[in-house]
Automatic annotation (TrEMBL):
Belongs to the glycosyltransferase 2 family. Keywords: Glycosyltransferase, Transferase. Pfam families: Glycos_transf_2. SUPFAM superfamilies: Nucleotide-diphospho-sugar transferases (SSF53448). One of its GO terms (molecular function) is glycosyltransferase activity. Residues 16-181 form the Glycosyltransferase 2-like domain. This is Glycosyltransferase. The lineage of its organism: Bacteria, Pseudomonadati, Bacteroidota, Bacteroidia, Bacteroidales. Its EC number is 2.4.-.-. The keyword Glycosyltransferase applies.
Amino acid sequence: MSLLVKQDEKPLPQFSVLMSVYFKEKPQYLRSSLESVFHQTLPATEVILVCDGPLTPELYNIIDTYKSNYPSLKTIQLEKNGGLGNAMNIGLKHCQYELIIRMDTDDIAYPQRFYKQVKTMYERPDIDVMSSYIDEFIDNPQKIESVKRLPTNDIKLAKYSKYRCPVNHPSSIFRKKSIIESGGYRHMLYFEDYFLWARVLMNGGKLYCMPESLLAFRMNKDTYERRRGLKYIKCELYLQKELHQIGFTNTYEYIRNLFLRVPPRLLPSNFLSLIYKRLLRR
């Protein structure tokens, strides 16, 4: 295993950061995200940014500026927008290193995120996928609206995964081999990550969640609106059907999830936000 510079007298492995951007991203969000990526206490060996279809001139200008200042940033230009699952699979092929950190282009990584996650994965070779708590904010990353927590150990996460996503995807780090052996990302609107983690678990993979926030997750007025309505319900039904068909959930869990997860999607977005904040967050 190739090694990076030493921190705390322990050599840490080289690693990739995998990101994807498309034309609807706001330039100021992309700039803030890249700024956080390139100001880590443990610098990334490479940053793979997949341009999922043609972008706006403003987005290209920001990317070109960071490519000039940070040679570790490498871009992959796709001819057309193919969705997150497709972009991630293409990006995976271009990641040179076994450890891959996921980062969204509108979130902000805290300065020690890379160091803490790479160090933990190096010291815990039994872990295949790891994430952390995430701080959720609307406009000001200094003003945290809520914290999305998960169980921390693999046994509780495996149980949790039967009815909710067991990994905070925006703050995840994983071993490339485990993802590829589990079939990689597959196109499943809104749920590419959940379906992936389910297959990782079925393949014998082990999950872990670091019990601290390592990332500020950007929310807005449309966040809850996107998580409701007939389109989202259809995607939810498809996910639950697929999880049942591959044997990840049994019949009881399948029916339970339909009753627990589908009805809230019919609520107005303001009521749905209350459910998230009062029942599903702290």
